Amino acid sequence: MPVQPWNLDKIIDDIDEFLDAVLDTAGLDLDYEIREGGGDSAELISPDLTVDFSGDDLPQLLDRHAELLLALEHLTLEALKISHDDRYRLLFDADDYRVARIEELRMSAEAAAEKVAKSGRPFHFQPMTSRERRILHLTLRDNKEVMTTSEGMAYGRHTVIYKADKKP
Amino acid sequence: MTTESKIDPIVEMVELIAKALVDNPEGVSVKSVDGDQVRVLELSVDQADLGKVIGKKGRTAKSIRILLGAAGVKHNKRFSLEILEP
Lengths: 168, 86
Hints:
heterodimer, A: 168 residues, alpha+beta, GMP Synthetase, Chain A, domain 3, Ribosomal Protein S8, Chain: A, domain 1, 2 domains, 6 strands, B: 86 residues, three-stranded mixed β-sheet, 3 strands
């Protein structure tokens, strides 16, 4: 499916309007900057827009695996009625938290793929969000020795790596 | 003497989020019920919009609750969200 160009000005305005109101009423001391693209380190997922937070409440934003950052991202995507296929085009980050997580996932995908290629036995990752599973898939997309799928339902959905000729 | 009722920021927060999520913003109302320890935000939306505020696997409602938790830390209160069945 061809990727439709985004009206970035409109989306930036909508993000601004929603986030400003939410942060203000919540009483959170956070600033953010919206920039196009994702910077070098987010190359793998290449978002169209990155919303980068700073401010005194950053520790709270990143507490418990950044649950507040992810909640704000989710609510913004829902509020802007961004379609499921386009959700990866927007990334919320702070202190490079997400970028570091992407790098961590990329490295574990490569290490696990190497193991699978050697042993021939499939490797099951922990359950992850669709965004995180996507990073595993993207990392190994061009690896001819293995293939990846996602298995399980709901919160148990996780990525599995198979040796290329051994997928059931 | 006129009593000027200031709009509560937490009620406003839940209301503005809910209105952004639903198809019919006019069907959104938020009531704040004060308890000793916890303040309950009761959210009502149109029947057809229930799924919009709950979200797939309940993720949207969970996100609002996480935000309420963070706001609670800032306001020194505990907030809880209840989504009322229409």
